[in-house]
Amino acid sequence: MKLSLSVLWVLATSINALGQQPIPHNGGEKPNIVVILTDDQDLHMDSIDYMPLLKKHVIDHGTFYKHHYCSTAICCPSRVTLWTGRNAHNTNVTDVFPPYGGYPKFVVQGFNKNWLPLWLQSAGYSTYYTGKLFNAHTIENWNSPHPSGWTSSDFLLDPHTYQYLNASFQRNDQPPVSYEGQYSTDILAEKAYGLLNEGIESGKPFFLTVAPVAPHSNVNPFPATGNPDDALKEIHMTAPIPAERHKHLFPDAKVPRRSNFNPEKPGGASWIKRLARLTDEVIEYNDDFYRARLQALQAVDELVEGVVTRLEQAGILDNTYIFYTTDNGYHISQHRLNPGKECGFEEDINIPLIIRGPGVPVGESKIVTAHTDLAPTFLKLAGAKWGWEGLDGSPVPLDKKGLREAEKERQEHVNVEFWGRGIPEGKNRFSLDDGKIVDYGPNNTYKALRVVGPDYSLYYSVWCTNEHELYDLTTDPGQLRNIYPSSSSAPETTILGIPVSKVLPRLDALLMVTKSCKGHTCVHPWSVIHPAGNVKTLQGALNKRFDKFYASVSASVSFDKCELGYILESEGPQEAVVFREGSGDDWLANGEL
Fold first, then answer.
1. Where is the secretion signal located (predicted)?
2. How many angstroms from the chain centroid is the CA of residue 198?
3. Which long-range contacts (CB under 8 A, 24 or more apart) does 283-286 make?
4. Averaged confidence pLDDT in the chain
């Protein structure tokens, strides 16, 4: 049987009852929540190791969620997902530029009237924000309309958002102010401390986000055009600029030379598999670029200490949750790629999430979490009654008991998706194996799954060219060997001792759900395929009793056309397959018994 996912969503939008139960806090008071959100910070190039103050004040007092993912590896779509709790295919904000993305698209989609700060205010919170909000939020459109839901705010604005020495900030209803010649992160820190004082003095629990642009590339200036291709021609990105006091640091730091660093053999799919190997000159430049990122993060490290110290001085640190994360990851020289993001590789989607707060244990967790889970987490902490409907994630467990239960029961998958181009940052363009130099990658649109189970770790993607990638990260953590069958004569690989040919139909069925899921079905996609509730993981779906069912499944994820944004008519099949229990070994699939 095939069911439209929109129908399935209507049948399954009930929110997990546990998600609406408030977490107990010191003295029964609602906690304060502080989010420090960096821009393009990597997890897989060790940038966290160069932040001793973050370690001292947050990591050493909280939980580091090692399997945290963004679902769209680019700034604006990822941030909209953060603050709405919805995947990009449900926000339709899929780019940094109009018409497919940016602040204007966020407004047109109606989210300025239905997003996290408004929900938190309805739960009794004062709300504060300083730093980068969204791309295409500019010195021209800052008040048309002004971002809603913030008790007080001080936003960085385009076209100067990424200019470390020429920032423009806009406070509350006041016009933008230029800070030419001053260091952006230092200005931001002072504004953050001021908003923190406002929160303390408000007499209410407060939510504060501090969003520096480090370690994003410096951009002079960010293009304001409404045409994505024209904008990419205008954009000029260079290495981030550190504060003067940090420019001497880490003189010997280089991009870690792991297995996928400038590999000898090409890999990946689509245009990525055509990349030429990086030259020694390019690698030297990339190392310099990497070092500048580490240096730029030092001002953020100081900001972390400044926030924690002020919370402690105010006597409220013990009733404050601190979340440290970023919008998306980053690659430099992995897979022969120049600095950038947008890819589905682990460097781009697996990102830092560290949480400190009441009852949060010290250590690491390997449960799977995603950016769609953060809005539900904030709502749960706030004891909110509004804002839950239609969210695509589930609250992150924050105590020992919750973490133990999550290891057994929590979902093991992440939906990953992208639309648009792959963009090189820095002075070098993409060099292809035929000698051609291109300013940006051809269409980079794909749908993907990241699945992390107790005995397996997989990445599966379908590109808009209908090419496929399948990586077994247990044996190939660098994602260098695409084990998707390319020909009938190739020797068959196994996963968990099962031939890939039997695993793939399960992954296809799962991806068919997640690529268009809404609400409950994003968290529990197996409940769509197996409504009896007896399958909750990939391993459960691999049971031999389902072999005939999955062998019969003909529909799989594919694209009718490569687009630069989310155009439903080009997204291929939209219907999920459903297994219906019969008598004995009978089963129902695709409408036939």
1. 1-19
2. 30
3. 283/255, 283/333, 285/426, 285/427, 285/428, 286/255, 286/332, 286/333, 286/338, 286/339, 286/426
4. 92
Which CA distances in Å does 216 have to 17, 39, 102?
Answer: 39, 5, 17
| Given 70, 75, 464, 522, the catalytic residue | 75
Strands (DSSP E) contained in 453-541 are: 457-463, 468-472, 494-495, 498-499
> Are residues 130 and 225 located together in one domain of the fold?
yes
Ramachandran area for residue 362 (φ above 0: left; ψ -120 to 50: alpha; else beta): beta
| CA–CA distance, 240 with 252 (Å, rounded to integer) | 18
Statement to judge: residues 387 and 420 lie in one domain: no
Gap between the Cα atoms of 439 and 283, Å rounded: 18
The domain that contains 74 carries what CATH number?
3.40.720.10
Tell me, yes or no, whether 338 lies in a domain: no
Please tell me whether residues 224 and 87 are part of one structural domain. Answer: yes
CA distance 544 to 547: 5
Distance CA 79, CA 105 (A): 13
Residue type, 292: A
Is residue 10 helix, strand or coil? helix
Structural domain boundaries enclosing 496: 414-588
pLDDT of residue 226: 63
The DSSP secondary-structure symbol of 538 reads H
pLDDT at 593: 24
Torsion from C-alpha of 275, 277, 280, 281, nearest 10 degrees: -20
Number of C-beta neighbours around residue 573 at 10 A: 16
Average pLDDT over residues 313-325: 98
In 3D space, the residue among 496, 442, 489, 452 whose CA is nearest the CA of residue 473 turns out to be: 452
